[in-house]
DNA sequence: CGCGCGATTGAGTAATTTCAAATCTAGTGG
DNA sequence: CCACTAGATTTGAAATTACTCAATCGCGCG
């Protein structure tokens, strides 16, 4: 049933059947419907989520109710308000489903216990964190390079799958421009 | 001599004297003068640097020779073109000294060997990566919240030390606005 | 058919960039 | 102590870009 998850982990470290059973035991399965919130602003972020399927957006809603999308997450990605999760404080970001979504999730204390029980999982999480860090730095760079046009084209090239699953309003909130400005760019 | 470095590590994991000797043996000391490059675009990023003292900027220079500052790094920070370092490809970012800088540095292969020799160092690096990831996500958010004014005020509050050591031209390149626009903001 | 949502278009306004010139500051040598 | 220079900062003004608010278009669904 969770072959996908096992493959995901084994792309970084190898596991025996017994070890995989141990790993699995620390996770819980959940499902969410489109428009449901996996993390809600003002509430604790109990879980770190591995997306088995579906699509979510990690959002900051500012004082004037405008949404800013920090990241999309889909199949095989991990997502969460990590600031809130790791510090066990209330979430300032929301994680909302844009499609029906299946996840495996783990609490922070289970995460620590799992790393104790199976230290090599620490290497796995380190690699994931590394990936997240590099992706974030790349995004900072693309936001600084100012050219909205360029950012949009880069998105078209590198994440064309996203464009088919997400409204342009969401894309605009991700690129950091108004939906009208996005609409006036290059050949659709 | 390296008490500072030891304290830095021991703020996350504890080390015996012998262990600290092992750790140290994987690092090399270097010093750079103001305006020297610790990482140069087009060359491999051989080292990950721990800054003992000094100040550096991590920069992307775009096609029109405009500089975009991804991050500043100072005492007790780690910095490097991580994309290039971890993938062992040529750097697309430069790391330049804004002041004379003393570092401890480690190659990628030494990093791997160190983690094998002393697995708990993996937890240390994981924590550092976590810090970098959270900082990057915070920066993405502050770039999306658009208000340049707000970004500048946030910088004044949270990094007032930086303002005294860095020119406004650099600050502007970090905030993502022209130096003229920055100059026209709030009461200096 | 008509409703509702997303995308587009239009027009006026606000913010930012660009280029140029003026000002300021710190360090140097007379 | 003063003049001089180089670099950084500020100011000015025009041009560009993006935002906001409003209206319209397009399409799927009940």
User: What's the mean pLDDT score of chain A?
Assistant: 93
Q: Kindly state the number of beta strands of chain A.
A: 8
Taking the alpha carbons of the first and last residues of chain A, their distance comes to 40 Å
- Counting DSSP H or I runs of 4 or more residues, the number of helices of chain A is 9
Indicate the multimeric state: homodimer
* Major β-sheet profile of chain A: 4 strands, antiparallel
Beta-strand share of residues of chain A = 15-25%
SS content category of chain A: alpha+beta
Query: Which protein chains make the most extensive interface, counting residues with beta carbons within 8 Å of the other chain's beta carbons?
Result: A-B, 29 and 29 residues
Radius of gyration computed on alpha carbons of chain A: 18 Å
Q: Segments of chain A where pLDDT lies below 50 for 5+ residues?
A: none
Record the strand order, biggest sheet of chain A.
Answer: 1-8-3-6
Give, in order, the helices and strands of chain A.
HHEEEEEEHEEHHHHHH
Shape of chain A: globular
Percent helix of chain A: 40-55%
């Amino acid at each position: 049933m969770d072959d996908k998850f096992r493959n995901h982990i084994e792309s970084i470290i190898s596991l025996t059947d017994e070890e995989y059973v141990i790993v699995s035991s620390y996770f819980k399965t959940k499902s969410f419907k489109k428009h449901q919130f996996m993390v809600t602003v003002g509430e604790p972020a109990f879980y770190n989520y591995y997306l088995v399927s579906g699509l979510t957006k990690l959002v900051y809603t500012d004082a004037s109710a405008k949404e800013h999308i920090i990241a999309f997450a889909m199949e095989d990605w991990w997502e969460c308000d990590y600031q809130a999760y790791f510090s066990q404080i209330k979430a300032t970001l929301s994680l909302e489903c844009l499609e029906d979504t299946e996840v495996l999730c783990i609490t922070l204390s289970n995460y620590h216990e799992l790393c104790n029980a199976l230290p090599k999982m620490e290497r796995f999480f380190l690699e994931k964190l590394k990936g997240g860090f590099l992706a974030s730095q790349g995004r900072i760079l693309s936001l600084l390079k100012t050219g909205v046009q360029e950012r949009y084209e880069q998105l078209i090239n590198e994440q064309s799958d996203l464009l088919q699953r997400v409204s342009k309003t969401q894309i605009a909130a991700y690129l950091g421009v108004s939906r009208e400005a996005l609409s006036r760019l290059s050949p659709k």
